[in-house]
Amino acid sequence: MRLSQYYLPTQRETPADAQIASHRLMLRAGMIYQSTSGIYTWLPLGLRVLRKIELIVREEMDKAGGIELLMPTIQSAEVWQRSGRYDSYGKEMLRFKDRHDREMLYGPTNEELITEVFAQHIKSYRDLPKNLYHTQWKFRDEIRPRFGVMRGREFLMKDAYSFDIDYESAKKSYWNMFETYLKIFKRLGLTAIPVRADSGAIGGDLSHEFQILAPAGESTIYYDKAFDLVDFDNEESITQVQHLYAAADEKHDAASCPVSTENLRQAKGIEVGHIFYFGTKYSEPFNAKITTPDGKQVFAEMGSYGIGVSRLVGAIIEACFDGEGIKWPTSVAPFQVGLICAKTHDPKAVGFADAVYAKLLEVGVEVLYDDRDDRPGAKFANMDLIGLPWQVIVGSNAVEKGVIEIKQRVNGSRQELDLTSFINQLVV
Amino acid sequence: MRLSQYYLPTQRETPADAQIASHRLMLRAGMIYQSTSGIYTWLPLGLRVLRKIELIVREEMDKAGGIELLMPTIQSAEVWQRSGRYDSYGKEMLRFKDRHDREMLYGPTNEELITEVFAQHIKSYRDLPKNLYHTQWKFRDEIRPRFGVMRGREFLMKDAYSFDIDYESAKKSYWNMFETYLKIFKRLGLTAIPVRADSGAIGGDLSHEFQILAPAGESTIYYDKAFDLVDFDNEESITQVQHLYAAADEKHDAASCPVSTENLRQAKGIEVGHIFYFGTKYSEPFNAKITTPDGKQVFAEMGSYGIGVSRLVGAIIEACFDGEGIKWPTSVAPFQVGLICAKTHDPKAVGFADAVYAKLLEVGVEVLYDDRDDRPGAKFANMDLIGLPWQVIVGSNAVEKGVIEIKQRVNGSRQELDLTSFINQLVV
Fold it and tell me: Which residues of A, range 121-160, sit inside 8 Å of B by Cβ?
């Protein structure tokens, strides 16, 4: 993409009302525009990151046996009355009436809707287990929206729901998602600590929150330092994680903690995922009954599994930035390469940069080409701000020696290379 | 995907309350589930079609120079008060108040929001033209939702907005989208007739509706039979379409029609797209001013371009079905191949079918494998109902002679082939 034809409204000034780094950086990098309190338009650069996260989550959900569908954003109050949550949910639920005066709401979560769908279609143990998921916009009418997309009102969430014939099978489904979540966060370039959690409004006893380590985190967590050594590509190591100690501030008790002081770490965490087992809490009111192999009828055992997709955009930045801007992990970077022509008044340099751009596109590299007539210093600062993993600079050495300068954003390292060597390095 | 592990709740019975074929077939084929009046959950098979249409639209929009972003579903009433449409829009707009008693609404369209975003960032002729688009859920509170996803309340729409420095340039943007729409509908396997239209609530003078020919269409259209001969892969032919006669019932006047009776066709149409030029209607209230090359300030000239993505799922079915079920065009089919093992009690046949399944996956063919223990007749009827382009049947000849039976859904033709020959036919 040529920057001259793109839509990337970066800002040099720090927005006054943004309190945390990710919010400031998303505004400055032209990723989002606040349409109204807690509600954002995702500008092109921000949308690319959002979609990449969504895709990674989808790929891992599919690998784990999840089946994707899509529930609507607007729900009838009736299903929530049936579960008993319509009255208990509180003011975070956005409620309204349609033109026929029927009570409706914008879904803050989807346990009711999915259980109703499931109960309509699935009746036999032969069709279980099932893990149904979707990625859909939700609305929670926060009293004080803040921190940009980290605590917005309209947000994108992947929520999955498992259905099983009995507790043993439900536990397997739960730990399958536990493992899947660790793989997802690994692919996103993050360290996520699964912290045992209360089940909150949803109920049940198997429950973990996944916390990303970042200084701006809202909660303090304590965890076994063995987490830092886990090889997330190794199934056995992932299984071990189930047994490692991790607790949030309010649960941690130094006196009874099973991990010795020297093996215990303390850090700030941002919650980006939450998994629950809640048994028959919803299958009972929705009469989601399953026939067992011996002809009995039982209520389906359920769990739910959420990941805050739009929140993750902010959380990743909180874990990956410096004084100059964002440092995207490769897997979610909006483009892999930022190409800068530092000599826009030299036709040979422009020709060279154009050729580099064409070649990178040809080999399938996502490249953002700053072809504008602007000062090199401003272009460099802009590229550092938006944080693409690689910067390719076409300067005087390009024309004279045929080499380009490569800067790696994550560590600032620089090297001069010919284009073919760089492409080989990139594609490997 | 193995059907035994999928979520495909097909029905043999015709749903009583569905009035048109696409609605009946989508319910019977397990594509949608009605959560409440005019609001649907997209079940896995339906979602696959929806996503394929969305992707084709996106690819063609990107090729045409469109830049994708994403506006939220919930909007503040303020922006609509600014354009003057908050009062005029009527009861189809879903309005409500948030917890702080601020007036909000679920966006039925996005002219206001996009113009506000644009006005914030774009100030110079150097940054024009721009075509910004998104694909987002909309809500229109229809008084009597019907026809399934064809006239639902929550629906998915691609809406694009063009911004230009003057009328001449805006016209170019308009005809660029006109051409893009013809290409999109062609790729979807449809014949779309662009009919000159009133600009309705939005205003302006360049306006076309794109009508799909289908017996269940709501409007009658008259058009030059030359449309049927247009080669949509040829740019020149597409340009000619601009000048061909087409008019809706209420505009058509036999006496003044420039096309002779023998060259005029009459058909029913379903509206699936609408494009408008509306000048400065929104750029004025939102003060979207552009500096011209000679330093003057002018209001941006705008157009908007909508495609009903979820409506298209129904419209395509209305154009492509028979007494047995749906006949998906290849480009939007949820899977390309339906594999049936007709001898589930013969281990050799099952082994053969398993091997065919593995091979098709290996070469990247999307295949739905009916591996269930069910009567062959029921499996055949089910495959005809869901309408995948190709059916591959593994029966006694598979084990004995190593050949599979191939049925093409669109015309019912059958042939016996070895797998390699079929794959070559499919991949070419």
Answer: 121, 126, 130, 132, 137, 139, 141, 143, 153-154
User: What is the band of A200 on the pLDDT scale with cuts at 50, 70, 90?
Assistant: low
What is the reported pTM? Answer: 0.97
Partner A, chain B 101-120, Cβ-Cβ below 8 Å:
102, 104, 106, 113, 116-117, 120
Nearest-angstrom CA–CA distance, A192 and A194: 6
**What confidence tier does A199 reach under pLDDT thresholds 50, 70, 90?**
low
DSSP classification of residue A281: T
Looking at the fold, whether B393 and B301 belong to one and the same domain comes out as: no
Is the per-residue pLDDT at B203 higher than 50? no
pLDDT mean over A214-238:
86
Same domain? B343 vs B320: no
In a shared domain, residues B45 and B149: yes
- List chain A residues with CB under 8 Å of B74: 39, 94, 106, 139, 153-154
Q: pLDDT tier at B428 (50, 70, 90 boundaries)?
A: low
| Chain A residue with minimum CA distance to B68 | A44
Bridge partners (DSSP) listed for residue B219: B269
Which of A10, A99, A133 is the best residue to mutate to test the B interface, defined by the most B CB atoms within 10 Å of its own CB?
A99
Output the domain CATH number for residue A45.
3.30.930.10
Task: Show residues of chain A in contact with B42, CB under 8 Å.
Answer: 69-71
Separation CA A132–CA A159 (nearest Å): 9
Question: d(Cα B398, Cα B218) in Å, to the nearest integer?
Answer: 47
Burial of B38 (0-12, 13-18, 19+ CB in 10 A): buried
Give the integer Cα–Cα distance in Å for A105 and B245: 46
Would residue A151 count as lying in a domain? yes
Chain B residues within 8 A of A154 when measuring between CB atoms: 72-74
Beta strands in B254-366 (DSSP E): 264-279, 289-291, 297-299, 301-308, 321-322, 325-326, 337-341
Please compute the mean of the pLDDT values over residues A71-85 and round it to a whole number: 97
Each residue of B366-409: pLDDT tens digit? 999 999 999 999 999 999 999 999 999 999 888 889 999 999 99
Residue with tokens 């859920």: B137
Question: Per residue in A345-362, pLDDT tens?
Answer: 999 999 999 999 999 999
- Using the 3D structure, point to which of B277, B297, B325 is the last residue of a domain: B325
A225 and A371 in a single domain? The answer is no
DSSP string, B151-212: B-SEEEEEEEEEEESSHHHHHHHHHHHHHHHHHHHHHTT--EEEEE---TTT--S-EEEEEE
**Mean per-residue pLDDT, B168-189:** 96
DSSP H or E stretch at residue A299:
strand A297-299
- Residues A215/A191, Cβ–Cβ less than 8 Å: no
Where does the pLDDT of residue B410 fall: very low under 50, low under 70, confident under 90, or very high at 90 and above?
very high
Name the residue of chain A whose CA is nearest to B105's CA: A96
Backbone angles phi, psi at B251, to 5 degrees: -100, -25
Q: Report the CATH number that the domain containing residue A370 is assigned in CATH.
A: 3.40.50.800
Q: Could you say which of B35, B43, B117 has the minimum Cβ distance to residue A75? A: B35
User: In which element (H, E) is residue A307 found?
Assistant: strand A301-308
Taking only the tens place, the pLDDT of each residue in B206-242 is: 899 999 999 889 889 999 999 888 877 787 777 888 8
pLDDT over 70 percentage in chain A: 98
Buried/exposed B220-254: b ≥16 CB within 10 Å, e otherwise: ebbbbebbeebebeeeeebeebeeebbbbeeebee
Q: Are residues B353 and B297 in the same domain?
A: no
Using a 10 angstrom Cβ sphere, with 0-12 exposed, 13-18 middle and 19 or more buried, the burial of residue A200 is exposed
Specify which residues B273 forms β-bridges with: B210, B307
Amino acid identity at A145:
P
Residues of the domain holding A340: 335-427
